[in-house]
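Q: Got a minute? One more chain.
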Amino acid sequence: MTVSDFAQLPVEPLPAHAGPPEGWLPVNMVNVLYAEPSEQMLSTELLGTPVAVRATPVSYHWDLGDGNTITTTSPGEPYPSEAVSATYRREGWYDITLTTTFAGQFSVDGGGWQDIEGTIEVASDPVAIFSKSLESRLVNPDVPVDEDADPWIPERTAETEGPQDPDARHRTL
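A: Always. Here it is, folded:
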């Protein structure tokens, strides 16, 4: 089995998570990133012979949508971990994309596992997040505060897209 054969198989993208579940976070607040890694077992046939294929995630590349990227061998962990994290410096909508690199092994007709030379990359669906600038202001102490209300988040339009970070960089963790 070649890496081209491997690339033709339906390896599923990993579930990717970013930021709080509400879909927004304050500017300069830590944005926690993590994937749900899992080994995938696939079946195919080559020359009429059944072949089992095992796809194992080996690295994770996060594109934060503002020009910053992170590559790591760790899938990250949910909050409160900040093992894989970043911040946005400006307000706006951003799409965070995870591309997972998978290594493969195959077994012909129930035989031993053999490595597939090379790897494949599979992109997950983007996670949209709004980075919100928050301001402190004086409030009327006689008016109750609704602590459960989210701040106003604008609809996604060309005008509300987040700008590129002029100091964007690639980090390897």
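A: Helices lie at 3-7.
Q: Perfect, thanks.
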